[in-house]
Design a protein that fits this description.
The protein is α/β, with parallel strands linked by helices. Helix content is 33%, strand content 12%. The chain has twelve helices and ten strands. A seven-stranded parallel β-sheet has the order 6-5-4-7-8-9-10, sandwiched between helices. The chain has a three-stranded parallel β-sheet with strand order 1-2-3. Helix 5 crosses helix 7.
Length: 332
């Protein structure tokens, strides 16, 4: 707020509560605005833009994703759209590794056992609550980590996994993009891996010990992790999704966990969130660890995201360069 308050030429109208803005309040107060800062929970569509009127120049979202914004409608009206990439890379990578560990080591089941007061009733056994180890061992010296999508967050996640002794990195990205052999060789050398390889999605599923889903949302990736892909994965493999819930078919994943096609799953996002109730098929699966879309939820990251969102809206209003602007040139 201090960045915005420091601009005397700006007249600020601020939602006063520390929770998601009510739609009715936003609709009532956006009329005549020059710029608006929104969150993932705010649907920016023709209805809202009509209410804002012709004075609106920019929509700045405090998020890296912008599926909640009707990009075509924004482009048609000549609006600028700001977002917050880069600043949450490290936080999401940290959480991705956390989810892999929790899913593999039965973290969800263990926490639930303690919180329900059942630890004392738990009967110890040599292999009780055991799961696949993320790190390599003398008896198990190979670990293949897969990435569906291999952008900044995936590469930051890879760097965090190196101390676990991983040996291979596999990834699948946009089929139209050519392999970057020079970059992959440099990453393999930097991290002392046997290989960093672009593979097709079938090989990615078959070979990955842990598969991280870190690709963009949208029609091209909708439910790309489906029953066909899940059936190809190892029975000891872990699936982690910290990108968009729409990339994973929830019913297929629940079935895969229930029938033992894969070992476990760690999810920061679920299709249809936040309407994920106790009756959701994935919530019922003990080897599925779900957290409520908190990948960017560190104090440091949220401050940086808010700062970037404010800088974007100020830049657009005052005619300066926006630090992070969505490219709308090819939208229409």
């Amino acid at each position: 707020m201090s960045i915005l308050e420091a601009r005397p030429e700006l007249d600020l109208v601020v939602w006063p509560q520390d929770r998601a803005c009510e739609r009715s309040w936003l609709m009532e107060n956006i009329s005549g605005a020059t710029g608006v800062i929104v969150m993932l929970t705010d649907k920016v569509n023709a209805e809202l833009l009509d209410k804002a009127g012709s004075s609106l120049k920019v929509v700045s979202t405090m998020s890296v994703g912008y599926e909640h914004i009707d990009i075509k409608e924004a482009a048609r009206r000549g609006l600028k759209v700001g977002y917050t990439p880069d600043v949450l890379t490290d936080a999401v990578a940290d959480l991705s590794v956390m989810l892999a560990l929790m899913a593999g080591r039965n973290g969800g089941t263990g926490v639930d056992l303690v919180q329900r007061g059942q630890w004392g009733n738990f009967s110890w056994a040599p292999f009780a609550l055991c799961g696949p180890q993320l790190s390599t061992t003398a008896a198990s010296p190979t670990r293949k980590i897969g990435f569906l999508g291999f952008g900044r967050i995936a590469q930051a996640t890879l760097a965090r996994l190196v101390p676990f002794g991983i040996t291979h990195c596999l990834y699948s990205s946009n089929p139209s993009s050519l392999p970057n052999y020079a970059r992959d060789a440099a990453l393999a050398k930097q991290h002392k891996l046997q290989a960093v390889s672009k593979v097709d999605i079938d090989e990615l599923a078959r070979e990955s010990d842990v598969l991280f889903v870190l690709a963009p949302g949208g029609g091209e990736t909708y439910r790309i992790v489906n029953e066909t892909l899940l059936r190809k994965m190892k029975r000891t493999s872990i699936l982690v999704n910290a990108s968009r819930g729409t990339l994973v078919d929830s019913d297929a994943l629940a079935k895969a966990l229930r029938e033992g096609w894969i070992w476990g799953a760690g999810l920061d996002v679920v299709e249809g969130e936040p309407n994920v109730t106790i009756d959701h098929p994935l919530v019922k699966e003990p080897r599925c660890v779900i957290v409520p879309h908190i990948a960017s939820a560190t104090l440091e990251t949220r401050v940086e995201m808010a700062t970037r969102a404010a800088q974007n809206v100020i830049g657009a209003i005052l005619g300066w360069e926006m630090p992070s602007q969505v490219n709308l040139s090819n939208v229409l």
